[in-house]
Amino acid sequence: MTDEAGTRGRRGSAATIYDVAELAGVSPSTVSRALSKPGRIAASTEAKIRAAADQLRFRVNPMARGLYTGRSQTLALLVADITNPVIFGIVRGAEQAASEAGYTLVIAESQESGEAEGEVLRRLVPSVDGIILATTRLSVETMHELVGDKPTVLINRDVPSIPAILPDVEKGVSELVEHLDGLGHTSIAYLAGPAASWISDRRWERLLEHTEKRGIAAVEIGPNSPTIAGGRAAVRRVRASRATAVVAFNDLLAIGLMQQLADDGVGVPAEISVSGFDDIFGSELIVPALTTVRSQLESAGARAARLLISIVDDQEPDDARHLLETELIVRASTGPAAAS
Amino acid sequence: MTDEAGTRGRRGSAATIYDVAELAGVSPSTVSRALSKPGRIAASTEAKIRAAADQLRFRVNPMARGLYTGRSQTLALLVADITNPVIFGIVRGAEQAASEAGYTLVIAESQESGEAEGEVLRRLVPSVDGIILATTRLSVETMHELVGDKPTVLINRDVPSIPAILPDVEKGVSELVEHLDGLGHTSIAYLAGPAASWISDRRWERLLEHTEKRGIAAVEIGPNSPTIAGGRAAVRRVRASRATAVVAFNDLLAIGLMQQLADDGVGVPAEISVSGFDDIFGSELIVPALTTVRSQLESAGARAARLLISIVDDQEPDDARHLLETELIVRASTGPAAAS
DNA sequence: TTGTATGCGTTATCAC
DNA sequence: GTGATAACGCATACAA
Fold first, then answer.
1. Count of C-beta atoms within a 10 Å radius of residue A183
2. What's this model's pTM, rounded to 2 decimal places?
3. Which residues of A touch B228 (CB under 8 A)?
4. A69-CA/C14-C1' distance, Å
5. What is the distance in angstroms measured between the alpha-carbon CA of A67 and the sugar C1' of D13?
6. Count of A–B CB contacts within 8 Å?
7. Virtual CA dihedral for B251, B253, B254, B260, nearest 10 degrees?
8. Who among B67, B89, B126 is closest to A67 (CB)?
9. Alpha-carbon gap, residue A314 to B166, rounded angstroms
10. What pLDDT digit, counting tens, does each position of B100-110 carry?
């Protein structure tokens, strides 16, 4: 057993099936079969081939395989902002599901910019087998133009004819409104997300529905950048609205708002109640801890990846358009309405 | 100008340079040249070719190109835990630097497990041009065996003969010890990170150096899982040590410790001072806000990517082993030593 | 400047 | 069960 397993083909390049074939004394096509299919080959020669492959440290060249098969075993996940904690769950879930199925996940970020998103997508599309678009800002036409007929799954956005993983906004929002109603609030301000955010519109719609039903006043303030800075910037309009409770599009906005309120000496929840969406890392750290509507982001990522893979592999997509449950997490940032 | 730009080669597959060549009335190699090189071709034919390519929505097949060139224009970044906020900066910096240089970044996670890390790496290595290993747990031998001669850059770990981006622990730690000394602390506990963490050892070493110099007692407690749960679990040993100040390996540990101390009714910083490393999102949200040593993680990611690309492209690696500055951020979790 | 021929490493189709 | 051969799409060496 020679120690120099690095006896590669020529130069310093990696071993190919030709090298393995030569060492094992068989033909290259037999090597290919032995390493792809399990038992469609004589056990003895398969053993020889495996030994030779090990000795040469053979690894199949993904590009050669991909050129022939037309598949890269790679999926793309496009998100607006990697540093937004909401994304974690999605990323981790998608990454795990992808790698369990033997796929590699490429994560790309559009930096909250529609143009950048198009650019990134254009570059990525040719080299992946499928695409997950999380909270995209793209118009429907642009989306279709860019992805073409490449399998695509959406997260947090509903476009006809494109499979999607969507939250069941309904349950969480109804619980939230019920909670605020129970605390005596009669006027709620909704701090909206970005202008093109499908999910922000859905949240607002549901909120409006439930406040109407309960005879609570509701006003939409926005659009806002879905960041801490965005929340801080919105404080003036929030206070001007005289609402006794704020529902922010996401936790980042809510946290920014609370920080600025604290700086301004406004008590939360004594003078104004604040709540958000997503239950990000940090929401239970802040003081007062944030009341929020949690979505199952981790399953969203995993489900999106599994759904995409089933489409790519031409299987029966079993759980398309299944909704993700949401639930209210009550913490300390919401309290009884201030007597006005 | 026909509207059906989708007139592809055969079936529904994408257009190739052959299709473009036919439409433009030139040879495939001319198409290849026109689209790779800028001006090494007659302007008139180049225009024709571009028009044809646009009409057919031609996109070069990355696998065909890669098969020939041996390059995938892809880099891998391996991290222990995507959901750890420390990683954000690294990921974002690396992603930006990579995509600026025309590279795609694949982010993979080892879930804090050495075995998983090896597995992931084994799968990724053949399909990327280079690798960034952030806070790896792998042994030096395993690392060499897995990456082979593939260009590699380390973050937060120093291994002879492998380029690395390292923090200058010195400055931050000396400032921290000086700060604690100034507050009258005479006994410090270091809450260590995982057993195989190079960076945890460096922090402890430096800490020891500076406490010795100042005549302060120091004790290492650990190893600990670098998570909130790890911090909570360590509280008993921390209190048993009777140290008046704790320096945690990272902010997550520090936060967990503070949460458990709060649950136990121990005042921070009144009874014990707590500090961490990294200045993650959440550290200024918690109450009391966490005193911490910040590293420039975003530049670490970007620098690692740029360094790796310069190696892959065979350029002069200009800033190898340049250290990243660290600085102390004083917040509310550290205060005067309790009278014992 | 442009066209022709060849090879990158793999898989699938066809003989044997 | 195994070997020869063509094809995947692109980029280069060489010829024209």
1. 15
2. 0.90
3. none
4. 19
5. 23
6. 110
7. 140
8. B67
9. 46
10. 999 999 999 88
